[in-house]
TrEMBL record:
TM region positions: 30-47, 68-91, 97-117, 129-151, 163-181, 202-221, 233-256, 277-298
Protein origin, superkingdom: Bacteria
InterPro entries from the UniProt entry: Na+/solute_symporter_sf, Put_Na-Bile_cotransptr
Cross-referenced Pfam families: SBF_like (PF13593)
Any single Gene Ontology cellular-component annotation: plasma membrane
Descriptive protein name: Bile acid:sodium symporter
PANTHER family: SODIUM_BILE ACID COTRANSPORTER 7, SOLUTE CARRIER FAMILY 10 MEMBER 7
Keywords: Membrane, Transmembrane, Transmembrane helix
Amino acid sequence: MKRLLPDTFTLLLVAMVVVASLLPISGEPAEWFGLATNLAIALLFFLHGSRLSTDVVVAGFLNWRLQGFILAVTFVVFPLLGLLVGVLSPWLIPPALYLGLLYVCVLPSTVQSSIAFTSIAGGNVPAAICAASASNILGMFLTPALVAVLFTAQGHVGVSLEMIGKILLQLFLPFVLGQVLQPVIGNWIRARKSLLAPVDRGSILMVVYLAFSNAVIQGIWSEFTTADLALVIGLDIALLVVVLLVTIFCSNLFGFSREDRIAAVFCGSKKSLASGVPMAGVIFAGQSVGAIVLPLMLFHQIQLMVCAWLARRFANAQVKAERLVQPGA
């Protein structure tokens, strides 16, 4: 039951939304806070790059069938499901919240939780590390590209050279710099996860506070009802369940080993809050970013609860199977 409760980070996210609703930042203070947020995001992606071992990525890519499958689920199956929801969205959900759901569908996979759940379930951890890392690297290009194609087709958001430049400068350049320095500082960074965790989480909390401050000023809570939010939660759950079923069925169909199936399930079904929130601030600058990231924040907690339960199911099933094959069992 404890695993189904919100984690500390989720509670902090909720706290940021509450603080932004009661004390939204605006004017010149918001401009300075926005500058500090941009610097924090750049530092976040620098740390991502400096933590990632190049050797692990190269080794993981040798399992190209599994990697291709996970990327296809992340950047093809998920967006198609988002478009399917869009067929019903005019009658079900406000356009701004639907765009948030569609944005969830074009994001890369998580890194930490995908690897952690794969490990708990007894899956292929090196492949999970590679898949999650590749997803986030490619996501810096594929997510804006998918936003440009899918959102523009519906008359909402276009892509511009300025947006591409901001993504390269704020996200990709710090990541590449981190990769260049990884042989020098990588071990030091990886050995101090607890020390550097505030940078990871703090930068996301800053983006959420700034995004919801702008959204509150624009009247986000008068725009959506409790029923709208309940519907978003239901659609988030439906998206996750469908993708989990697709990954489980198709990974069996393709003949993956048990370890690879587990990696496919946990890497293919996740969406990254750590990458999604900063990218939303760049891609949707000047728009109601709060409404865009709200479905992602809800999806984040749902995927943690469901996948924690599923990982334990996989692990318990393996324990039972091993007991059955033991002599005298």
